[in-house]
Amino acid sequence: MSDFFEDLGKRISDVAEDIGKRAGDTIEVEKLKSKVRSLRRANERDLLEIGQMVYEKFREGEVSDLDYTPLCETIEKRDEEMEKYKDEIQRIKEVF
Predict the structure, then answer these.
(1) Which of 18, 38, 90, 91 could serve as a FRET partner for 84 with CA atoms 20 to 30 Å apart?
(2) Where does the pLDDT of residue 32 fall: very low under 50, low under 70, confident under 90, or very high at 90 and above?
(3) Alpha carbon distance, N-terminus to C-terminus of the chain
């Protein structure tokens, strides 16, 4: 009879550990999704700013691609970072 309770205790412990891991993974996925949303919003702001800069240059008759390079590079870096987070989310989900 004691073997039954030991086995039952082990199974309960294993299930609790699995639930804890899944909860931790879920929290990690949500954190990564939040980072992706934050980066996407930052890109949207910068894209609006680029649009305003282009329009102002257009109105002034001045168009120079070099003016937009820093913002474009920042957007590219965020895009790369978002892809890393998305890959990490996919990796975590595959473990489920």
Answers:
(1) 18
(2) very high
(3) 34
Return the structure tokens found at 11: 């199974």
Distance CA 35, CA 24 (A): 17
Cα separation, 4 vs 17, whole angstroms? 20
Q: At residue 62, what are phi and psi to the nearest 5 degrees?
A: -120, 120
**pLDDT of residue 87 exceeding 80:** yes
Residue 13 CA: distances (Å) to CA of 7, 47, 81, 96: 10, 51, 37, 18
Rounded to whole angstroms, the Cα distance separating 40 from 33 reads: 10
d(Cα 7, Cα 58) in Å, to the nearest integer?
76
